[in-house]
Amino acid sequence: MVRPIRSGVQLQGESAGMQWKRFGSRALALAPMALAVAFAVPASANPHEARQRWEQLCQIRKDKLDLILPEAMRENGIDMWIVASREGHDDPNAVLLGGGYVGDIGYYVFTDRGAGRIERGTMGVGGAAFDQCPLYDLKASPAELRAFVEARNPKRIGINVASEIGTADGLSHSLHEKLRADLGADLSARLVSAEKLVSDFRSRHTATEIAAFTRAGEYSRTITERALSSEVITPGQTTTGDVAWWMMEQLHKEGLGNSFGIPSIYILGPGPRGPVSGDHVIQPGDLITMDWGVNFLTAFTDMKRMAYVLKAGENAPPPGVQRAFEKAVAIRQMILDVIKPGITAGEALAAVNRQVAQTPGLVLGRYDDPSADGKVSDVVIGSHSVGDLGHGSGPSMADFNPLRMTYTLRPSNFLSIELFLYTQVPEWGTRKIKIPLEDNGIVTERGLEWSYPVNSRILLVK
């Protein structure tokens, strides 16, 4: 039998849509508050960090289901969303939906019954942590799924099968077959892909998610800028692998996850690139880059930094290298100039690509395959979605995400502003060196706003 339980609070007389209009727009206005949270005391110095993180995660989940889910379902014309998990095979969205323990098969079932909020039910999901953050109105047995769905009679039932987006493709073959068998032929005929719904649900964010994202960004850049300094690097002794593992130790101390595994640290010039995060010994005159991401709660970052190892008597990078960095910063501004809500990510990418192609001395290039013409600099732009993963589920200004390029940019989307410039520098001969830039921000009504202090210089190692 289905049993009602207490769940999130809804203000009397207001629909979920009304609440989103009132609170969702405030999420962006609250960005300064989120930045304040980002500068909070580090985990290693806070004896209550575990409890505070749990409370933050619970609030993120409540806000996500109260404010984001209704508009995501209604915009995509999905009356019911069924998310299935199996022990040892959680759906990628389970963390956002409350997690919990699934002994055999569990379902999270969301139904738009025409009221302000989305009805939320679970079947076969439980556990102390799940119960201590009450999110759901109903609990039932997985055996009751067909009767539950028949009683609500949805026209379109979204399930997590997808053509491109991995976070919307969590339904395994065997679970798909079982779901269809349990629902029967009539209800199974109403199953549709929830790919766009999942993208919208994951890529639109509340104030609590923005707070987590800014804190993840602050952890990312603070650890990175310490790593690419004399605190960690002793020229002639320290390897790129030593730096990477020092960064991993900082994640361990702070109780953080990461986006891509071991940080990618390698030499941009003047010599060969060498093994990534390997046994290359860092020498005076090396230009180093780092690419990585930090995970805090539900938020993931993706960023890069560069450092130059000073030679004896130097106090700055070679002038040609500095000019190349400044040229890349100018291209970054071109990207920011075209980002605005209401256009597709592909339209924004096309606009900045046109601007690059029309700029004397610049050409559109291919990643790590620059043209032989030393008189021009090659530009590659891959400004992708970020936040729910290092490479996120939402609108993406990157041709390696063709479906996501068709999605419209919306306030509260997170973007990683990523570009590569390949250009000659007089001090290093005819080989073009790569200048990579990447930092993360939030789409607002004003355009793209950084979520932490953006990279503005080449770091120096003495």
From TrEMBL:
The keyword Chaperone does not apply. Transmembrane segments: none annotated. It comes from the Bacteria. It comes from Blastomonas aquatica. GO terms for molecular function: aminopeptidase activity. InterPro entries: Creatinase/aminopeptidase-like (IPR036005), Pept_M24 (IPR000994), Peptidase_M24B (IPR050659). The keyword Protease applies. Pfam families: Peptidase_M24 (PF00557). Keywords: Aminopeptidase, Hydrolase, Protease. Gene3D superfamilies: Creatinase/methionine aminopeptidase superfamily. Residues 213-445 form the Peptidase M24 domain. The lineage of its organism: Bacteria, Pseudomonadati, Pseudomonadota, Alphaproteobacteria, Sphingomonadales. This is Xaa-Pro aminopeptidase.
